[in-house]
Amino acid sequence: MSRKKKTTTAAMQASDMPQYAELLGEIKQRIRHAQTRAWMAVSAELIRLYWRIGQVIDSRQQQEGYGTAVIPRLARDLHNELPEEKGFSERNIKRMLAFYRLYPHAALESELVPQAVAQAELHPASSAALPVVDFPAPLLLAIPWGHHAVLMEKVRDAAARQWYMRAALDNGWSRYLLLEHIDSASHQRAGRAANNFLLRLPAPDSAMVQQTLKDPYIQLRADARPTRRIGVQPAQHRADRARAGWRQHTYGG
After folding, report:
1. Which label site among 182, 202, 211, 242 has the fewest CB atoms less than 10 Å from its CB?
2. In this structure, are strands 198-200 and 117-121 parallel, antiparallel, or unpaired?
């Protein structure tokens, strides 16, 4: 029997095993969850970096009197000295400063990314139940930077912003689905319900993970080296809108 026939016969015999489908499914699930954990780790490190940059700029402005003109200069010099890094535009550096000023006591340096299903329950995701808003560091680290940018721009109320963070993480919303929910003020309708969101990894096939793996601020390549990119493919946007079943919107970059 030729080598090709032997290989084909062995494959057919393996597929006929009663437990083979279960074995294949378990391995696929482990691969997908490992990819999600890798994405979460890279995303969390990016959030830490941006928070620290915002912290340094804020500190220098307070101590040394740097004005707003320092940010355009930083953007130009970083572009000249680190041309391969694409996440340090003037606009994004301003976001880093705003991010730090929104969460100055988050202490993101020492926090770890939640594991596959962390059973540490957060407070109910109700704006009415959050008169004093505390943003746990693991929650901030679990939200992708693109989502943070949307939330900082669109949601000024801290309690509502936290609600959307937890809902996006729990449901695996992409940025465009998050925008849809913000535009329709979902927190005002669901905020009255006694909903509890656990701090857990989004599902590997969720819109949040798939968007971030394919075309986000962070892209994981085969060699596990992160490449920062800004923007989302229009095709992904259309897929998100079709999945949601809502009317089409066009959002600016």
Report:
1. 242
2. antiparallel
CA dist., res. 237 & res. 154, Å (int): 18
Position 177 pLDDT exceeds 80: yes
Tokens found for residue 218: 């962070």
DSSP state string for 101-129: HHSTT--GGGPPPP-TEEEEE---S-GGG
* The pair of three-digit structure tokens given for residue 64, joined into one six-digit string: 């040394």
Structure tokens at 40: 């979460």
Q: What is the pLDDT of residue 182?
A: 95
Residues 6+ positions from 27 with CB-CB distance below 8 Å: none
Query: What is the DSSP code (8-state) at residue 252?
Result: -
Query: What's the whole-model pTM score?
Result: 0.71
Q: Which of 86-90, 106-110, 165-169 is predicted with the least confidence, judged by mean pLDDT?
A: 106-110
User: Could you tell me the two tokens for 224?
Assistant: 């596990």
Instruction: Give dist(CA 26, CA 125) in Å, integer.
Output: 32
Rg for the chain, CA atoms, rounded: 21
- Of the candidates 47, 25, 63, the one whose C-alpha atom is nearest the C-alpha of residue 96 is 47
Burial 115-146 (b: 16+ CB within 10 A, else e): eeeeeeebebbbbeebeeeebbbbbbbbbbbb
Task: Check residue 113 and give its pLDDT.
Answer: 53
Q: Tell me 128's DSSP state.
A: G
> Any idea what the Cα angle at residue 121 is, between residues 115 and 127, rounded to 5°?
125
